[in-house]
Give the backbone structure.
Amino acid sequence: MPSKPWSGRFQEPTHQLVEAFTASLAFDCRLAPYDLRGSIAHARMLAKQRVLTRKEAAKIVKGLEGITREIARGKFPFSAADEDIHMAIERRLLKKIGPVAGKLHTGRSRNDQVALDLRLYVREVLDGLQERIRRLQRVLLDQAEGHAETILPGYTHMQRAQPIVLAHHLLAYVEMLERDRERLADARARLNVCPLGAGALAGTTFPLDRAYVAQILGFDGVSQNSLDAVADRDFLVEFLADVALLMTHLSRLGEELVLWSTFEFGFVEFPDAFATGSSMMPQKKNPDVAELVRGKTGRVFGHLLSLLTILKGLPLSYNRDLQEDKEPLFDAVETVEQCLEVLTALVPRLAFKPKRMRRAAEWGYLAATDLADYLASKGLPFREAHAIVGRIVAYCLKAGKELTALSLAELKTFSPRFGPDALQALTLEASVARRNLVGGTAPAQVRRQIRAWAKRLKA
Ligand code: ARG
């Protein structure tokens, strides 16, 4: 058995440093199931086109099916001598069925083969991720269902701004995740094209039925340019970009959980099973899970940048640089899957603190906009109303009291338009309830959103 399938024109064996330097088996072994599916489809097509006899193809397919079982059971004998997963499988096939194994590679190159494997792999990952996103959306929705009336301060610039309800805040993440899911679905549609038949770069002399292979493997079509087919990794860039944005959203959620769990905020408490302690400070309970979600986002950004950098300036068509696409991809997949999974387990167990939230919403003049809106609704131009309420806030700051502590007589010294109903406008309940338009934080609107999401997510 020759040590390398390409060793024919070589006069000396590969240097051991080069073996190690060029090998990808340690990580592309993950592609084995996809490589096998691709090879089985290729062999069946070769038989259909009479490039192989029925008997030859049957032998090859049977051998590949045996290897598929070995891989699934962890019984595949990996050898460090194999450069990559494609060669490892081919060598194994040779061992199992003899020289007819050598006919499998007819009309195919590792260049179109690896492009195929990656598309099959990412397609499956995309389907799985969409389901994982759905699960996180569902647990966020479950929490939202219990908090349609839980009032907390909404923030801009990290300053208390206007009261909102907690469900509204949680549903903001459900919206982000929905866009993430849609982006993954878009990416899937674009990548679902079969590159097999491109050969090394120029196509092949054999009469392949490309459409037949594509159909067996569930592709929507075949690539139209062989050079592009072996050189293209756009689908990986798209995937990593989509995942980077998804991680951005998870990181923002993580950051809010870190912040909200501080003594200063006290809006949420982590369950003990999802927190960690300090080796020195006995009192500590740290939100490490949320911090790590935030931190791991950095490495996923890095993977996107790695791949863009690998592709930038690469001439057509295949170049070995492309082998460097795999580790960033696999790590990004593992990272985002883990983050989604741990958040999905954590969210249902978060104990939000409605009393603390409410107390926070009572301080900081959160009803100032409501008071200005009140004057504007009595006919005053909003800009003038804004100025008047600004003076009222300044007065309150000086007097050391909240807007809600003002009497009607005090209000009237700032504007004659204030009537008895002005005080009513200042309550937290009135404030949220009045934002009763599509997308607003009024509990009535938020409950509508909850119903709509329940319908969508249960389907
Ligand atoms: N391990 C290679 C990769 O991941 C497979 C293709 C190798 N092709 C080649 N001509 N050396 O890109």
